[in-house]
Amino acid sequence: MAPKFTHLLTTFLMLLFSMQLLLAQSRTLKSEGHHVGNTLKFLQSLKEVQKGQNIIGLTEVKKHLMKFGYYPSGDANNLTDDFDESLESALKTYQNFYQLEVTGNLDSATIKKMMIPRCGVPDITNHTSSSKPTSTSHKSKIGIPRWPSSKYELTYTFRSGVQNPNEQDMRSACSQAFQRWESVSQFKFQEAPAGSHADIVIGFYRGDHGDEDPFDGPGNILAHSFPPQDGRFHYDADEDWSSNPNMNQMDLESVAVHEIGHLLGLAHSQDSNAIMYATIPPGTIKRELTQDDIDGIHALYDN
User: Fold this and answer.
1) Residues assigned a catalytic role
2) Within 10 Å of residue 83's Cβ, how many Cβ atoms?
3) What residues are paired with 223 via a beta bridge?
4) What is the C-alpha to C-alpha distance for residues 121 and 156, in angstroms, rounded to an integer?
């Protein structure tokens, strides 16, 4: 009896240990999912933090501003939670770009803007001006890279890094998005056969996917694309995508029209009505090119 009892006891303890391990893993996954899905919710706790203070979370604010071109990238390895002059300057530039009240503080309007889902392409690059709208009627920042006149007929294909349940919706949305730009420019777009070489490659990816610009899970960066003549356009697979979005979903075509603008060489606009504006709230359908977008593509290619 003793050996049998010992065996039963050992089996029970092993089962108990396994259950505890599974519960711990479940809690970890839930915790990580919650954190990823609410990437910038911590900003709300930083409202009205003042210059000179040292508050946990300001390092993340600096990283966020650095990603989009507002904070000096040379300081990437030396960031602290100090509210210093560099952070104040970065916030002022950000507020100026988005036409908010320029306070240099993390006020409620600035935090609200930062929490809206957006494109992962920086607002300010070596090819765009720092903060002021242009003096012309359109406010799109026009990038230097562009397709040569010999490449106005572009091919595109689809190749995802993860399984894509929205494959057909994505193909349809992108086809319509290309038609919108084709109708106002010299470009012609044609889908290439699957597996063949194409000028533009579109797909769904998750996390670190090999382009040195990792996605961050649901709720912040929606997609990104690269300037001419790179041709890559990536959707974040962790977002809730739809061709007919409810108030919590992101619209495939709206984001496609925006990212194709980057593929053609346009940078972000300061006109909140423009397709090339960087942010788009969940549930929003924004597919029609505005005069600002049209002026931008003409200014880039009609000379």
Assistant:
1) 259
2) 23
3) 235
4) 20
